[in-house]
Amino acid sequence: MAALEAGIDSIEVASVARRRRRIGPLFVVAAAWIVLIVSAAILAGVLPLPSPTDIDMLGKRAPPSAEHWLGNDGLGRDVLSRLIYGARFSLTVGLLAPVIGVVIGGFLGMMAGYFRGRLETFIVGGMDVLLAFPPLVLALAVTAYLGQSVANLTLVIGVLGIPAFTRVARAVTLSLSEREFVTAARALGATHSRILLRELLPNVALPLLAFFLLGVAVTIVVEGALSFLGLGVPPPTPSWGSMIGEGRESLDIAPQLAFLPAGFMFATVLAFNIVGDTLRALTDPRPGAL
Amino acid sequence: MARFIGRRLVYLLPVLLAVTLLTFLIASLLPGDLAVTILGDQATPEKVEALRAQMGLDLPLWERYLRWLWGVAHGDLGRSFRTGETVLAAVADRLPVSLELMVIAEGMGLLIAIPLAILCAVKSGGALDRFMTGLAFGKLSLPPYLVAILLIYLFAVELNLLPATGWVPFSEDPITNIRSFVLPGLTLAFAEWPVLMRVLRSDMIATLQEDYIAMAKAKGLKPARILLVHALKPSSLTLVTVTGINIGRLIGGTLIIETIFALPGIGRLLVGAIYARDFIILQGVVLFVAVGFVIVNFIVDMLYAVLDPRIRHGRA
Questions:
Q1: What's the predicted TM-score (pTM) here?
Q2: Which chain A positions have a beta carbon within 8 Å of B25's beta carbon?
Q3: How far is CA A282 from CA A15, A206, A215, in A?
Q4: Phi/psi zone of residue B57: left (φ > 0), alpha (ψ -120 to 50 degrees), beta?
Q5: Residue B249, min C-alpha distance to chain A (Å)
Q6: CB–CB contact A141 B15 (8 Å)
Q7: For each successive 10 residues of chain B (316 residues), what is the average pLDDT?
Q8: Axis crossing angle, helix B144-151 with helix A256-283, rounded to the nearest 10
């Protein structure tokens, strides 16, 4: 399972494509899709949509109609509405979980990269322990024990992302700490906290933001995996993962029930990857990286 | 070499210990009482109390951890309170299925990745190379469960060529057994090959610029011989590592894939334990998988050092 390491792969995979350094049409389309899906998710309650949970036993797997634009699912629930409410859920977890990673991982990484020494050994060692678990196994185990809820899911996936963010923050801080402007600040008598906050943080923030967007993509995938297994958020709350899982049962008679949420998820994850990778390439100081 | 192994071993032990501690702590996060979970809501307080005492649940946390660790060190990971099966027996029963799946998946991945990597490296920056870079990037957004759905739809539902479920033991019917692994193997291979290809490709490009390759060309050796004999082996170092690390990732991948394709492996055991709320099995399997993962990574480190002497002398 690609899980959280996938974010790290993407660095290797994507950095080869030098041409992606420019902001091209692909980037614009991806950003537009993100804006569209995020606003649809925010406005879901205001949009003239049928309820995502109302069951209509007579309209099981109904084809698209004026009333139900994308038809109904196996329980006669409106598919479009479920997709948009599902986006609300997937994006909430997808956007919140990496915040945990970015804040804690960013902090630990900067500390390790700036102070070095024992602190660094300790932090890197701690991350190694967290990385010792296959991420999906850990996520499953913790949600199984803690119980399935949006908060728990976000927390678990967020914590799993910490090592990746720590690595990025540490690597950037390490190389920046050697630079002249840091030496200059130190010579001027700046305190550690001033150097960290005023000199280093602005420079670490951009690569972290780029990695954050890749983290969103990975989180949506992991959340989808848990929901797909029926171990994400409990029904009837719609989530793309659980919709795919339910649609799998009727691949032979109504394949669109699995393919529609799968397509939405793929497009959204791809969009976050493209935007995140473009930003990463723009902020990567190495010429043509790799 | 012995010193290198010693250094890594010193590092391995604390990590393993921390893994056991973390596994134990996760299990103790369970809200409520394990004894009540086992006996059900209708159990009398006396019965619950007796079971708590019998399982040592009334002891302080650290003592429970040490007792549990003592058991684990002696190969006792507990037994399911539902079926009475020991964790070790359950794992031993399912492990071959998961291993077969991983080997098939990794093999298929390498089979796709190696030829493509060589072709891309020879004409780096060419049309095929650029196409593959784009494809590898797209693959990052396509998690295995989406690939599984696509493959099932294509091969099992539409074309009716391969089964989506229906595993039988290898000893009973080898052909049906292998057939039932094709789609899950392909699903996982699809997630693996782009990573493997990228790694081999970039190492291969570096190798092809070495002087001895120019020498081989000057001697008039055939391009195929240069590529396969002279360039492939020195370029495959990172590939070996990544293949090893991927085994760890595959453990996570098999979780979902085994559930989708109804293969009775470790992943399905774990997911099944969660569905059945069988917490002893869950804890045991998580520990087994995590320890296995750490040890596989350790072995990969060793293998890497054998292949590249610079690493064991700490110069790389």
A1: 0.81
A2: none
A3: 10, 10, 17
A4: alpha
A5: 6
A6: no
A7: 78 84 79 70 77 75 84 81 83 88 88 88 81 80 86 83 74 78 87 83 83 84 81 78 73 81 87 83 86 80 70 54
A8: 140
